[in-house]
Amino acid sequence: MTDMEFAWAALGGDPALLPRVSTVVRDGVLDARLPVRELARTCVGVCALAAAELGARRAGLAEVPRVRVDDGAVGTAFVSERHLLVDGRAPVAFAPLSRFWRTADGWVRTHANYPHHRERLLSALGVPAAGVPASDAPTADVSAVASVLAERSSLEVEETVYAAGGLAVALRTAGEWAAHEQAAAVRGRPLVEWERVDDAGAPHARVPGPLASAEASSLPAAGVRVLDLTRVIAGPVATRTLALLGADVLRVDPPGMPEILDQHADTGFGKRSAALDLAADPGAFEALLAEADVVVTGYRPGALDRFGLSPEALAERRPGLVVARLSAWGAYGPWAERRGFDSLVQVATGIAAAEGSVERPGALPAQALDHGTGYLLAAAVLRALTERVDGGGGRVVRLALARTAAWLTDGVERGPGGSDAYAGPEPWLAERDSPLGRLRYALSPVSFEDGPGDWARPPGLWGTDDARWD
Description:
Helix content: 25-40%
């Protein structure tokens, strides 16, 4: 079974559609010891095929449009955050305290891009905060943290920081991760988890209606309302893709936790952004949910349950809803409720060890677990919408970065080289004005016959749109 066949089967797709996909293979794209190029190509390919399938179904077409996956476009999009320029300024990918550190017995990686995660990290380690924003963290903080970590074991640091609500993960080899209880839980799950919600006889959310052929070809998700409750990269990449395909995507964040500006600029294309206090104004969210077709969540499992936003609770209140849930480690096993990011999953699962050297751990050439899982998540939503066209009933889909990592390390096969070289990202970059300034950005790699080339709108200012549907 090829990688594309495996992923498409995981999405419940018809294998007869796979010949509609063609690939432009290029050398020099996402080079790594692990088959990152092949993972990225597959995730984008099945996403584009799912979009083409939905458009054909809604337009009543006899044939699904052809899909073309170009490694150049894929490789450019998988590092979209590195190609972003805002008025000529390049973003800062990681804060000073988000990095690898030497410990008494190995290495640990921390993540402290958000101010509250930085504060928890410093508190857990007994290092006084300097009282400045994370982006301006002084060299003194780095030196103080390095001194503390050098005297502690990696596993001690991991447990201490996580207990304080921060993020730190000990470096593990593939063998060490395979022996971990969380790894066993991850291996026992499918790449994409599907659940059909039994809501027979209940009033349903709208089934995506028919579209004219031209509209369906370019915007297969037109008219679909998507509530975006995600942060950072993977979830926002999924919803950014749905917006490209015509969905009305409304991202909702807590008022006191703004998204990092550069991440919002990179993943906010096509969306509107609203700030909403779920505890103070639950009625406003319920009004949005009452007219939503899809809800995408990207918080750690359990984090939204106190607001009545578990997949089960959402499906009960909005029968027929498609709920897509993303997590770092999966909603199972001893790490089910732990926070996590792509860089930390790489460290735990043996990827950083495989990509590094004797002297220092390494990393993938892109945050490929984030981007790859994001396109798979979008594909799962599109396939769920197609199935809803065929018959009623809600769907719950779940994906995890750790499960995508397991597929990369143990399932994806390295393919042959290509006849074309990757000469650079320029063919897949664009520029436009926005409320944030002049943006240079990567175009979406999701491509099919007569499909969209760019988003209908640039990202706006974070949290300034009304919490209502257009």
